[in-house]
Amino acid sequence: MARIPNKKRKMFVKPIVKKKQANVDHITGDKIPKSFVFARGKLPGSLRQLQMDLRKLMLPYTALKLKEKKRNNLKDFLNVAGPMGVSHFLILSKTETAPYLRVARTPQGPTLTFKIHEYSLAADVAQSQLRPRCPQDLFKNAPLIVLSGFGSGEQHLKLTTVMFQKIFPAIDINTVKLSSCQRIVLLNYNKDTKLIDFRHYSIKLQPVGVSRRLRKFVQNRQVPDLRNLQDVSDFVTKAGYGSESEGDDEAATVTLANDLGRVNKASTKSAVKLQEIGPRMVLQLVKIEEGLCSGDVIFSEYGTASEQRQETNQNNEEDAGDDEDSD
Length: 327
Hints:
The chain has helices spanning 45-57, 74-84, 122-127, 155-167, 212-220, 232-237, 306-326, and strands at residues 35-39, 88-94, 99-105, 111-120, 144-148, 183-190, 195-207, 253-255, 269-276, 280-289, 297-300. Helix 4 links the parallel strand 5 and strand 6 (183-190). By secondary structure, the chain is α+β, with helices and mostly antiparallel strands. The chain has a domain at 35-173 and 279-326: Rossmann fold. The protein is globular, with a radius of gyration of 26 Å. Strands 1, 2, 3, 4, 5, 6, 7, 8, 9, 10 and 11 form an 11-stranded mixed beta sheet that branches.
């Protein structure tokens, strides 16, 4: 007897694809801020490199290889920012008078506009140092943020403080790991000149009372060259190779709660070393807008001065030109 085929149809259930959620800090429970760093209008080569330096500074929560096209307008970046969880824009532009940096919170603002009086690239900072230090794993964690001189009580300074604090992830000092604190961004406000010094440093801990030779020996695990020495003790006590930390004051030393690497051990004193890695900028807050690069002006340094109008018109022309190109 012929076998009757089973005509029962198989049912295929389409898997439910969960919407990718924005990254959330598992310790603080806060949403991790992310950023886009891009330009509006044409920039000279040095400002383009400054843009790349700022992207590197904002790692790991930024798009390091963000591609820009002339026809892209602000709405294009905003449309992409939503699904990717991007919370802030850092926008570089240049007028006939000076370069500018706009720091905006998406999607509805506010927007802070800074005039860049001076800047130095990360490469320039490294060339000025005898031993530049910038290992690749330095950028695995977001930098710490320290603001100094912003406590005058003025409303625009309070808003500036909050804006920069929200750009970087918050930390819990009770649970944070020392190994994740490798960089620091320092902003110092001078109330007399109304200028902000923007600096970017790497953080390094060195045990107090240990010579540089011994630190290198423990870190690298390489047998040192002892051919020209009479005794092993000469390697430790040789003149000219004393501890770089012995001259540090007590305020620059900390007692570690846990081990950090092979050299810094728990319950021992270590000296905190800061080494600038760049970029470096001197900024001046000139305007605060209520919206995203638009809206009511909350604060204006120049009032109705011609320079303020020129900067505003230049930015509006750039945005309008991009809108026409995209049509």
